[in-house]
Amino acid sequence: MRVGDDVSWSDNLSNVLDEITEDYVLLNIDDLIICDRVDHDRLSAVVREFISGHGNYLRLNPTPKGVDIGGAMDVVPVGDIYRASTIFSIWRKDVLKSILRPGESAWAFEIYGTSRTDCFGEWFAAKATLLSYVNLVIKGKVDPRALAALDRCGIVYRAQRPVLSRLELFKLVAREKRSAVFGLLPRRLKRAIRDVFRPA
Predict the structure, then answer these.
(1) What pLDDT was estimated at residue 63?
(2) Of 105, 120, 61, 110, nearest to 84 (Cα)?
(3) Is the pLDDT at 199 greater than 60, yes or no?
(4) How confident is the model at residue 198 (pLDDT cuts 50, 70, 90)?
(5) pLDDT of residue 196
(6) Residue 56 is inside which H or E element, if any?
(7) pLDDT at residue 91 above 90?
(8) Rounded CA gap, 76 and 53, in Å?
(9) Residue 124 CB partners (closer than 8 Å, separation 6+)
(10) Average pLDDT of the chain, as a whole number
(11) Is 106:32 a contact under the CB 8 Å cutoff?
(12) How far is CA 181 from CA 56, 68, 125, 186, 197, in A?
């Protein structure tokens, strides 16, 4: 499907959405590689429940978790952090289109687009992990941990990207630990803190 000139992630996506006739679309970032078997029956059941309930958004993994309402899906409340996460997420097409802004990257959309989702309900995250994946590429370089995980799964990586150095990997692990600590904070504080420190 043609997107026209490569302007930005959001502009390209908006152009593609205009060409799609289905009511729902699946978003993902191409450096995230599924690395385990998928339980298709469980995945299909959750997606069917979401669509039959006319949901607006469904994150296929509980990262971060929503609020338990019973069943296979949790609610992602208004004000929650990363409400606009693109990672393995199903969106009602017209809702996604209304949240997009020209010129935004996928990263900027997840940060700044989150507040634009607050006017929508029916926002969910799967209670259990439905798609196991590794983040193979970090800022243009291959994460050696992800490469090892793919190797264990029998997936051969053939591209010639540079691999993160030991120092770069150390810094990445430190950021991951900081994010894990941040994840322990109460929900109501997370977005407020992130908004204080996000770039203008």
Answers:
(1) 82
(2) 110
(3) no
(4) low
(5) 62
(6) none
(7) yes
(8) 15
(9) 50, 55, 57, 58, 59, 66, 73, 74, 75, 76
(10) 88
(11) no
(12) 30, 21, 21, 11, 16
The pLDDT of residue 50 is 97
**Using an 8 Å Cβ cutoff, are 72 and 43 in contact?**
no
Strand 123-126 vs strand 57-59: parallel, antiparallel, or unpaired? parallel
Burial string for 128-165 (b: 16+ CB within 10 Å, else e) reads eebbebbebbeeebbbeebbebbeeeeeeeeeeeeebe
Helices (H), the chain: 9-19, 40-52, 93-99, 106-116, 144-152, 166-182, 187-197
* Cβ partners under 8 Å of residue 57, min gap 6: 76, 83, 89, 90, 91, 92, 95, 117, 120, 122, 123, 124
Residue 123 has pLDDT above 80, yes or no: yes
Place of tokens 């994840």: 183
Gap between the Cα atoms of 29 and 125, Å rounded: 17
Distance, CA of 10 to CA of 135 (rounded, Å): 21
Q: How far is CA 71 from the centre of its chain?
A: 22
> What whole-number distance in Å separates Cα of residue 85 and Cα of residue 137?
18
Sign of the torsion formed by the C-alpha atoms of 89, 30, 96 and 114 = positive
Q: 87: closest CA among 121, 130, 47, 51?
A: 130
Q: Using one digit for the tens of pLDDT, what is the confidence trace for 109-122?
A: 998 999 999 999 99
Backbone dihedral angles phi then psi of residue 43, each to the nearest 5 degrees: -60, -45
Give the Cα separation of 146 and 141 in Å (integer): 11
